[in-house]
Amino acid sequence: MIIATGTASGKSLSYLVPALSAVLDGGTILYLTPTKALAADQLRALNELDLPELRAATFDGDTSFEERAWVRKHANYLLTNPDMLHRTLLPRHANWSAFWRRLRMVVVDECHGYRGVFGSHVAQILRRLRRICTRYGSRPTFVLSSATASEPGTFAMRLTGLQMAEVTTDASPRGATTFALWEPPLTDLRGEGGAPLRRPATAESADLLADLVIADIRTLAFVRSRRAAESVALTTRAKLQDLVVDVGAPKDLPDKVAAYRAGYLAEDRRGLEKAFRSGDLLGLATTNALELGVDVSGLDAVLIAGWPGTRASLWQQAGRAGRAGQDALAVLIARDDPLDTYLVHHPEALFGRPVEAIVLDPDNPYVLGPHLCAAAAEIPLTRDDLETFGPATKEVLAGLVTDGLLRERATGWFWTSRERATDLADIRGAGGAPVQVVEASTGRLLGTVDEPSAHTTVHTGAVYVHQGETYLVVELDLESGVALVEAGATDYTTFARDVTEISVLESLRSHPLGPGELHFGSVEVTRQVVSYLKRRAQSGELLGDEPLDLPPRTLRTRAVWWTLPTSAVVPLAEDGLDLGGAAHAAEHAAIGLLPLFATCDRWDIGGVSTELHPDTGLLTVFVYDGHEGGAGFAERGYARALDWLTATREAIASCECERGCPSCIQSPKCGNGNEPLDKAGALRLLAVLLSADPQET
Ligand SMILES: [Zn+2]
Ligand SMILES: [Zn+2]
């Protein structure tokens, strides 16, 4: 069963009651969350029930050796995360046999977090869990809890591999919330290619927060980064201080605003929460640290600076506003980005039927392979297991045998290595060992960057920002996986430029779209970072283009692509339209809008556009999953292509800029410095593509 309803609708209660009665009946419960914080929160709530039969315990990376022994022996309500299940509980299943034998229910809380590649890994971990339960003779009920999303039943089935019932009716009482969509104005500031820039969402948030605090309205402002939280709080306080000086407002008015973010000490955070609940604080600027678990609700107003990525997060954040029987206000303030632009011009996309689905792809062979090895190490695989792990299993198993990872015998498949099979799957990683960022003078480890993005973010000469401090990369040593950096302020920023090539390996599905064709299939993407641009920090003025010597990286993944025949594009070229720039602009905006239909963000996907692609021989625009083997995003784009590309066109058309700006066709991750781009051309191109009666599959 999956329960997909809004914040504070009583989801926890609906699984807690049957879970507790199972415990009283001698059963055990496995509770999974993506974060330690939520598990700790649940444990507190369970302990407050004060039931002598209930022995709830968390089991995560922080649990000491002694505690682990106690938990294994006594706990009947185990709170843990998919990582622990993968690395410890399943491989050492024999130590936990008493727990598995009595297992009645598996609660998968906040399961909308299991999307993309991470979600695909979790899907395979749950299949391994089901196999272990079968071994010990238990058949637990799976209860999933999620924020609202479209097609929750389909998602739940992909995640667990089981048929799932949907619970989506939310009958919990609440007051009315007025929802405002806010688009900051264009300013005189100029960005890349002279494009006009909008006033930042954080600056508009500070204005609104100050106004609301003056009116004595308890307001939470959600922003996207820790730095933004500090800056919104600081700016708001400064505005209020001006009022104290200018019009004699109460002296303590600025003190009624503070920042709250991850990274603060626990006692400081609790102090802020208490002051906010009591009304000593009226305005709080926060990252999404409050989103999970912590109980701060019943506010008068919520400001959301920038689309939080999914409708699930939006409703979770907006849901903090509204006390029993009282009306509330929520404001979404658009950032300079095509998706935000589209949303503030198309409220029906937010308030109508939900279209965004939680997407994952458990059949990705790069995900499935390591879990088949892990499963074989747990209990040798037999033919009966093939169905559990999905349709791709047979082929992937054959590959694992060829590669010498598994041995096939008459009775099944065996893991015979001394290594830990679970080390093959990096369930939260992006593939490859991360590059360590080390301060050269002190040897201090500042952080890590995942291998795929190291080429673009910590190449030699890059300006690297870490927790607000600026560093310069002295050397990127790929061989040893280290980037050496030195602290130092620069007055310029760097931007890596790359050359991306894409080749079509196989088109798996296709159908006509307007005069063109739409495809979904496998591709190979080759990206090479070739140089980096230096730009003056304030004005964006170009200071230089420095060459880099980095090896190409290849990625085998899934893509959605569309082509237009020569007969359809020749008239456009004759009208003087820049076909390359038009396709490129359409690609950028399409990447920006895909997150509206699949729960990805624009950094999870990439694109390539060309006037003439060697494999198709036609004008082609590709959008691909940025993860080895694919993550389900491109597939979702294919399935919703008509709505997706229509929204893309509307997003470009809604922006009042003349020749393109970050709110429509410019991309912050363009490897080609946002050139060439043709805004009017993109509109014409998409109009042609969407013109004729498009056939649905
Ligand atoms: Zn624009
Ligand atoms: Zn680009």
What does this structure look like?
GO terms for molecular function: helicase activity. Keywords: ATP-binding, Helicase, Hydrolase, Nucleotide-binding. There is one protein chain. The longest helix has 22 residues, at 226-247. 34% of the residues lie in helices and 25% in strands. The model is unreliable at 693-697 (pLDDT under 50). The protein is globular and about 70 Å long. The strands form six sheets. Strands 3-4-2-5-6-1-7 form a seven-stranded parallel sheet, sandwiched between helices. Strand 12 (257-260), helix 10 and strand 13 (283-286) form a beta-alpha-beta unit. With 697 residues, it is of the alpha/beta class. One zinc ion binds next to helix 18. One zinc ion binds at residues 584, 588, 667, 670, 672.
Strand order of the largest sheet: 3-4-2-5-6-1-7
Terminal Cα span: 30 Å
Helical content stands at 25-40%
What hetero molecules are bound to the protein chains? zinc ion
Helix count?
Answer: 21
Instruction: Estimate the mean pLDDT confidence.
Output: 88
Radius of gyration: 26 Å
Oligomer: single chain
Pfam family, one: DEAD
Protein name: DEAD/DEAH box helicase domain-containing protein
GO molecular function, one term: helicase activity
Keywords: ATP-binding, Helicase, Hydrolase, Nucleotide-binding
